[in-house]
Automatic annotation (TrEMBL), chains A, B:
GO terms for cellular component: cytosol. This is Fumarate and nitrate reduction regulatory protein. The gene is fnr. Keywords: DNA-binding, Transcription, Transcription regulation. The keyword RNA-binding does not apply.
Length: 246, 246
DNA sequence: CGCCGACTTGAGAAATATCAATCTTCGTGG
DNA sequence: CCACGAAGATTGATATTTCTCAAGTCGGCG
């Protein structure tokens, strides 16, 4: 059975972990595997499933008609996606595998029923939706106001926080990160060349380095100082969304 | 009583309009007025209300510790906001009045009850949440990939579309728009100086002009051609979110 | 009248993109 | 085990976009 640790979810405190475990019961027996670069959910299709990422990284990406591309969300193990499709029509953007991944599928119909009868399930799903909005808000702030340096510092720290418990610490100072610099550019709204140059500067300044798909944070304080302006207040206050009592 | 037309919501087809009317019954008797620049919802506070914007423009804005600011959402008449606070803990960002506004307040408690018993209410609220995410996705694409010109063209067209029915056409070629160039910059992630220069170019090229808080679109086709790469597929397909049957 | 906020414009600086070569790594077939 | 090829990373030179700073200008309003 999956648990919060295996799912790498620092935020999943007890009630969320409970909901997460209960999702197992709704999960189709055999997880599906996709190779890096594969398309997990096609653009604009309707489909009867909600997904939970079991291993690997995935991302929602929008392809512009002229060839540009922009990632709209990065999913790490434990994240639910296409969750809103359980409640509304399909999303217009594809979800692709950023590394080799395995995903679990949940039938929309059964999830909807469980959502209405089981508060823990409802909390787990609601948390995902709210968390996703929080990330989008931060993303807008990052793209709108952050310099390349700030954006990169911020995103590397965010991944670190989200992966934290996987390494048994509250923050991973070293973690696997499958994105190419090109993909990182499409996450951050920068060209891969510029991502590369900024990463070099950060490496030369001893803040952080990426080698072999592994991020190593050498000076967490300095990196946080850099990303500080983009840091969202929710994290500072350690606030957690709580289900309002109906 | 409010109706879809007065609320300026092109998207509110019958079932949404029905939910909208039903919200009237949940609305506190006296709408509140705020002057331009006023704070409707303070940053980080808990409050027992959901709001519906009746007249004027408002925006959710994040202030960075170093003085920068970034808007996360622009609300037009008819929009519900702080809606998620009915289901989860408070949002960390303030909502401010971009013009003189009047807002209606809805008690969270009563809205939650109505949400669970009335499908039209549920649809109306769900639509708002999904719509907000759609806008955020487009915003990320715009900030991440759009040039200043594209972003400005795109946002002016978006406002036009959202206000459309107010002028009795499907698209307003002329509409009031209370944002200063400074605020527009904080929406688009640009400085007001640059916003100004780009607007001048667009004006000189005969695409669009802003005078006296009024946007006049002189060449809709050319403006759309400019914004085309940022246009979201949902609009092209005229897809509308539909409540899945539980 | 005179001030204040918003808009406008200019000059120059900084950030980021573009184009074009390498260089490295790594898997794969011979 | 090696050669090769492809994809990603790195770097340089240059162009473009956007910002910064500074100085007006314009229009409404007390």
């Amino acid at each position: 059975m999956l648990n919060a640790n295996r799912l790498h979810r620092p935020e999943l405190t007890a009630p969320l972990a409970g909901g997460d475990r209960k999702l197992d019961a709704l999960t189709a027996p055999n997880p599906r595997a996709f190779p890096a670069g594969g398309t997990i959910v096609e653009q604009g299709t309707e489909h009867g499933f909600v997904y939970r990422l079991r291993t690997g990284w995935a991302g929602r990406v929008r392809a512009l008609p002229d060839g540009r591309a922009q990632y709209l969300m990065v999913f790490l193990p434990g994240d639910l996606f296409a969750i809103k499709s359980a409640f509304v029509a399909a999303h217009p953007d594809a979800v692709v595998a950023l590394s080799d991944v395995t995903v679990e599928r949940l039938e929309q119909q059964r999830l909807r029923e469980a959502f209405q009868t089981d508060p823990e399930i409802a909390l787990r799903c609601t948390w995902q939706i709210v968390e996703e909005e929080r990330r989008l808000h931060n993303w807008v702030v990052s793209l709108g106001q952050g310099s390349a340096e700030e954006r990169i510092a911020h995103v590397l720290l965010e991944f670190s926080l989200r992966l934290g418990p996987a390494q048994g610490t509250s923050r991973s100072l070293e973690y696997g990160m499958p994105l190419t610099q090109d993909q990182l550019g499409n996450v951050l709204g920068l060209t891969s060349v510029h991502v590369n140059r900024v990463l070099r500067r950060l490496r030369e300044d001893g803040l952080v380095s990426i080698r072999n798909r592994v991020v190593a944070i050498h000076d967490p304080e300095a990196l946080e100082r850099l990303a500080e302006p983009l840091r969202d207040a929710t994290l500072k206050a350690k606030a957690r969304p709580e289900l309002a009592v109906g």
